[in-house]
Amino acid sequence: MRFFPLVFPAASFALALTACGGGGGGGGGSGFPVGLGAPAPAAAPAPAPAAAPAAAVPASEPAPAVADACAATDIPSGARALGYTRKVINTCPTAAQISLDGKGKVALYDGNWWSNNRAAPGTYSTNAQNKLSMRLGGGVTTVSPLDGSGALPLLAGSAGFYVEFDAYISGNDSDHWPALWVMPIEHNGKQDDAYAGDPAGFERWMELDVDEGGYTPGWLGTVHSWSGIWPNYSSNRNPYQVLGPALDRTKPHNFAAAFDPKTLKVTWWLDGQYINEAGAPFVPEVARRQNFYLLLGAQSHGKNLPYQMVVERFRAFVPV
Predict the structure, then answer these.
(1) pLDDT digits (tens, 9 = 90+) for 23-59
(2) Mean pLDDT of the chain
(3) Spatial CB neighbours of 228, under 8 Å, sequence gap ≥ 6
(4) Which region, left, alpha or beta, applies to residue 70 given φ > 0 means left and ψ of -120 to 50 means alpha?
(5) How far apart are CA 144 and CA 150, in angstroms?
(6) Which residues contact 80 (CB under 8 A, 6 or more apart)?
(7) Where are the beta strands (DSSP E) in the chain?
């Protein structure tokens, strides 16, 4: 989801979610004490559109998939090809797994550290198939916007990782902007993405967008090499491309991407099939020094047409 560009809060700076869009790539919960600073209220970005009333969105439900997707033991071919066969995240989310106030150690949290906006009541629900459904304006991450902690692990760029999301939305209008992406925990209110040898206040980080809807008739994955001193950030991204046939987003699809630190390359897959890749200069070397978390959101390209995004499952794999 691409809410990110150059809209960041006051002294502690902050991107305004350009979505698009894990310590250590394995093991237990992150519990990462990064002390993410909440953005100053005065500089908070403009409020996100209010969630549409329940009656405004038709209940579009494809036929249920596997009864319990999280019971699956398969390793995606893309992850296997890279040697990323250790499954460290395997979540079939529901609304009950979301912290609305940023507190607790859970799988998902509403909102982002760079924005004071929070979802309207009723934005998140669990559908008849026991899957997470979010309305326009919803957005969750695997780390708390308060302090960067969470029940799920961060994914270490030094080791490499593969992430995938099984999701669909309730309509194919080009105004709908579903976004699935990953960001580094180091990009926070403390500016932990500023490194020795760089000018004071200069930040560098990688944003990996696994998929974003509405830009093209089909799939769109992008990787950004961000840098600069707040609020003057700039992005060097791989060119937008229309790849593959038009995508019916009302049907469940598997969107996946991987970062390989050895080759400094990002690769994308759609429904288990290779679809694109990108390398330097769009994939920055600094990604090897950063640790990543997952983000999912249901935004709009401007018309704010109501829709629902259903997330059936998301997983992450790392090297053994």
Answers:
(1) 333 333 433 333 344 333 333 334 344 333 333 344 3
(2) 84
(3) 202, 203, 234
(4) alpha
(5) 6
(6) none
(7) 2-3, 18-19, 86-91, 98-99, 108-110, 124-126, 132-135, 139-141, 155-156, 161-169, 176-184, 202-212, 222-229, 232-237, 253-260, 265-270, 273-278, 291-300, 308-318
